[in-house]
Amino acid sequence: MVLLSKISLVHFWTLALSAAAEAGSCWRNTTCTGPTDTSFPGAWEKNIYAPASRLVRPQSILEASDSRTDFKVGSGHNVLKGNGSQIVFDFGIEVGGIVSVDYTASAAGSALNLAFSEAKNWIGEFSDSSNGAFKQGDGYLTYNITAAGKGVYTIPDNKLRGGFRYLTVFLTTNDTDNATLDLNDITLEIGFLPTWSNLRAYQGYFHSNDELLNRIWYAGAYTIQTNMVPVNTGRQIPAVAHGWYNNATLGPGDTIIVDGAKRDRAVWPGDMGIAVPATFVSIGDLESVKNGLQVMYDTQASTGAFAESGPPLSQKGSDTYHMWSMIGTYNYVLFTNDTDFLQLNWAKYQLAMDYVYGKVGPSGLLNVTGTRDWARWQQGFNNSEAQMILYHTLNTGAQLAEWAGDTTGLSSNWTARAKDLAVAVNADCFDDAYGAFKDNATATTLHPQDANSMSILFGLVDEDRVQGISQRLTENWTPIGAVAPELPENISPFISSFEIQAHFVAGQPDRALDLIRRSWGWYINNPNGTESTVIEGYLQNATFGYRSSRGYGYDASYISHAHGWSAGPTSALINYVLGLTLTGRAGSTWQLAPQFGDLTSVEGGFTSSLGQFQASWCRGSTKPSSSYELSFKVPTDTQGTVVLPPVNGKKSKVTLNGKSVQWGSEDTKTISITKGGSYKITVRN
After folding, report:
1. What's the CA gap between 578 and 357, in Å, rounded?
2. For all residues of the chain together, what is the average pLDDT?
3. SS3 559
4. pLDDT confidence of 8, banded at 50, 70, 90?
5. Is residue 143 part of a domain?
6. For the chain, how many structural domains are there in total?
7. Which of 339, 439, 451 is nearest to 385 (CA)?
8. Is 41 a member of any domain?
C-alpha cells in the first residue's frame, strides 16, 4: 500500500471536492432537494448572476505587479515574486464559500496570505470587516509553506468567507528578492444555497424593455441566494477581536435564510419582511424561509416574546421585529399553503399576539417597550412605525386564524382591533399641518420614511391622505435615493423597499420606478460595488459608510453589500408593474393589475405548489399609446381577478380571448376569471 504525503492528501481531497462541485453536487454533505432546472427558460436568463457551477474561478486580475488583467489556469502566469508582492483577483460578482489555491513554491519558508473584500474600496492585505468587532478589517489568512514544489492550500471550513468579490493573494518571505510563488489555480466552492445543485434553476423571472430594471431585479434575486446559507456557517458570537469564524449553528435543517452574505449571517425577521416576498417570486426556495421562521418559534420566550434575531446572535428586546416574525409566518403560509407548519406553531403564534397586544394602552396605541429596531435613530412610546406594523400584524393574523381553522372568534377579534388601532393612529399620529405621519404621538417634527411608507402599503391611512403622503415622501429624495429622516444622512434600501411599494399602491408607478432607478440603479452601476447584488445601505454623500456617522461606531467596510432586506424591487416589479400577486394560499386566488409607468413591455412569472403563474403585457407603439395587450396563464383550480387600467384615462374597448367585454362605469375594468388556463386581453380606445 502506498501512503500519500500530507500535501498529496490535501491535494487529493481538494481535487475530489472540485470534481464534485464541477459536477453540480450540493454543498458538502447536504442532500440536493432544490430544483434541477429553471421554470421559465428564455432570453432573460442572461441576467441571472448565479454561476453555472458550484465551483468558480476568478474572472480577471484587478491589480498585479505588471499589466496582467486576465486570469489563467496553469503555471507561469499568476506569479508572486518577493516579499509583499500581491495579485488582486476579481470574481466579477459577489461570491462566497471555500477558497483553494494550487501553487508551486520556489522554496520553503514563505507564507501564502489571503484577504477578502466585497467592495473595491477595501481591497488589500487586511480584508473588509465582518466579525462584529467594528475594527478596520478582519485581517488575512496565512498558510506557511514548508516545502518547495507543488501544494494546495484550502481555507478551513470555519474560515468560510460568506461574501466577497475581490481576493487579494500576497506573499511574505524573508527571501525578499528571490522567493516566488506560482499560483497555478484558484477555485472557490460556492457555499450558499447548499441544497441546490443548479444555482440558476430560478422558479420565477422578470423581463422588461428597461435593461436597468432587469439587472436590478436579478441583483435582488441573487442577493437572496447568497443569503441562504448552510446552518452550521453562522458568525461566531461573541465577536472575535481578530480574524473571523463562521462555524456557529443558526437553526434547523440544512439551509436557512440570513440577513447578509458577509455578515451578520443570522436570521433577522425584519429583513425577511422584504426578502421573503422577493424570494418567492424569484428563486423560490422557501425551505430556507421555513427554517428561518422555525428557529424564531423554537427560541420564543415563555412570555410569548420572539427574539430580535436568531442564534447565535439572539438579540432580544424588539417589539417591531417580534411582529415581523408573525408577519413572516403569514407570508410563508400564503406562498406555500404549509398548514402543517401553521398548526405546529399556532399556539405559540397566539401567545405572541397576546404578548404584543398586551402593550396597547388606554389611548388605543401600542406602547413600545422593546425599543431595538432596524437602525432608526430612536424608538419607543407610541412610535408610529410600530403602530403600522401592529396594524398589519393584526390583519394578517386574522387571516392566519381562518387558515388555522380557529372557531373561537380570533379572526373577527383581531380585525376589530386593527380597525380601532387605525382610528387611533390617524387621530393621534397624523400631522394635519404637514400632511404626513409624525414619528410619535408627541410634539415631534420628525416625519419618518418608514411609518409613512407602511401607512400606505398596509392600508392604515385614510384614503384622502394617501396622495399627500406619497408626495411628501419624495421630499426626502436625493439623486441617489431617499434619505431616511429617522436615520439622518443615511439611505436605507430596506425602508425604500417599503416606499416604492407605497407609491405603487398610491397609483404612482412613475414615482416608484424613479426611486428604483435612483437608488438601486446607482448601486448596480457603481464600479466600486459588487455590480451583482443589493447593498445594506449607504450615505447621502455617495459613500458606503452606512451607519458609520453620528456615533454608531461602525467602520465603513463593515457594511454588507449583499443584504436581502434591500431586495424590494424584485417583488415590487412582479407584484405591481407586471401586476401579478397571490391573494389566496399558494395562489388558489390571485390578482393581475398591471401598472405601466413609462415602460412599454413587461413579462414575468413565478411558481407555487399549484403550478406556474405567468403574465405579460405590451403597449402599442404610438405615443401616447392607444392600446395594450395583456396575456396570462394560471394553474388549474385557481381563480382570480384582472384589473385593467384605461387607455389614456379613457374607458376602452376590451376583448377577452376574442370576445367583447363591456367596460362599465368604473375608471378601471375588473374581470373575474373563474378557472385556470391561458387568456389574452386586448384594450384599445
Report:
1. 36
2. 93
3. coil
4. very low
5. yes
6. 3
7. 451
8. no
Q: What is the pLDDT of residues 291-305, one digit of tens each?
A: 999 999 999 999 999
Same domain for 373 and 236: yes
Enclosing domain of residue 323: 205-578
- The C-alpha cell of 589 is what? 386566488
Per-residue H/E/C for 436-489? EECCCCCCCCCCCHHHHHHHHHCCCCCHHHHHHHHHHHHHHEECCEEECCCCCC
Q: How far apart are CA 382 and CA 441, in angstroms?
A: 6
pLDDT-based confidence at residue 73 (cuts at 50, 70, 90): confident
In a shared domain, residues 539 and 402? yes
- In this structure, what DSSP letter does residue 464 have? G
Instruction: Write down which residue in 543, 578, 613 finishes a domain.
Output: 578
- Residue 556 sits in the same domain as residue 596: no
Q: CA distances (Å), 519 to each of 213, 457, 510, 557, in order? A: 12, 19, 14, 20
Residue type, 89: F
CATH assignment of the domain containing 104? 2.60.120.260
| Distances from the Cα of 577 to the Cα of 191, 249, 296, 584, 602, angstroms | 33, 39, 33, 20, 8
Verify that 573 and 616 share a domain, yes or no. no
Reference 101, options 205, 202, 204, 182; nearest CA is: 182
pLDDT of residue 520: 98
pLDDT tops 80 at residue 347: yes
- pLDDT value at residue 620: 83
Q: Residue 364: pLDDT band by 50, 70, 90 thresholds?
A: very high
Is the previous residue joined to 264 through a cis bond, with omega within 30 degrees of 0? yes
Q: State the pLDDT at residue 13.
A: 34
Helices 339-357 and 319-336: crossing angle, nearest 10°? 160
Assess if residue 196 is contained within a domain. no
How far separated are the first and last CA of the chain, in Å rounded? 84
pLDDT at residue 664 in the model: 83
DSSP 546: T
DSSP calls for 591-647: EE----TT-SEEEEEEEETTEEEEEEEEE-SSSS-SEEEEEEEE-TT-EEEEEEPPB
Omega before 362 within 30 of 0, i.e. cis:
no
Instruction: For residues 535 and 585, state if they share a domain.
Output: no
Distance of CA 198 to the CA centre of its chain: 20
Check residues 293 and 78 and name the one with the higher pLDDT.
Answer: 293
Query: Which amino acid is located at 522 in the chain?
Result: W
Distance CA 101, CA 154 (A): 6
Section 64-74 average pLDDT: 79
DSSP letter string over 24-63? T--STT----S-SS-SS-SGGGGG--S-SSSEE--SEEEE
- Whether residues 274 and 129 share a domain: the answer is no
pLDDT at 353: 98
What is this structure's pTM?
0.95
Rounded to whole angstroms, the Cα distance separating 663 from 667 reads 9
Instruction: Give the phi and the psi of residue 571 in degrees, each rounded to 5.
Output: -80, -35
Residues 6+ apart with CB under 8 A from 7: 147, 150, 151, 152
Q: How far apart, in whole angstroms, are the C-alpha atoms of residue 487 and residue 87?
A: 39
Identify whether residues 216 and 177 lie together within a single domain: no
